[in-house]
Amino acid sequence: MSSFADAMMMASLLNNGSMFENRRQRDPYIDPFTAWRRVERQFEVREEKEKKDKEKKDKKPETKISYLEAVFWLFFLSPIIGPIWYNLENALIKTMH
Predict the structure, then answer these.
(1) Where are the domains of the chain?
(2) How much is the pLDDT for 70?
(3) What is the pTM of this model?
(4) Helical spans, DSSP H, in the chain
(5) Residue 2: strand, helix, or coil
(6) pLDDT in tens, 13-66
(7) Dihedrals φ, ψ of 33, to 5°?
(8) Dihedrals phi, psi of 54, to nearest 5 degrees
């Protein structure tokens, strides 16, 4: 026997004989109310999706500073901020004494 035939037999045994079955058949008759509910639900889902997309477009992105940007600005502004911080610290120490 060929390996293909062996594979087909094993597949049919493991699949409980349902290997060659067709997909589940739908009921040929669907009442109009069920069809209407399905169509209505489709429109609701589409409207919700469009609304969410519009909200995403309208929403402004938050401006967050990354760690590397913070390190850069701290390094760049340190000649300005350093003396100011030092003087404020000394002024605070003098007011406590």
Answers:
(1) 1-59, 65-97
(2) 87
(3) 0.35
(4) 3-14, 32-58, 67-96
(5) coil
(6) 776 655 555 555 566 677 888 889 999 999 999 999 999 988 887 777 777 888
(7) -65, -40
(8) -65, -40
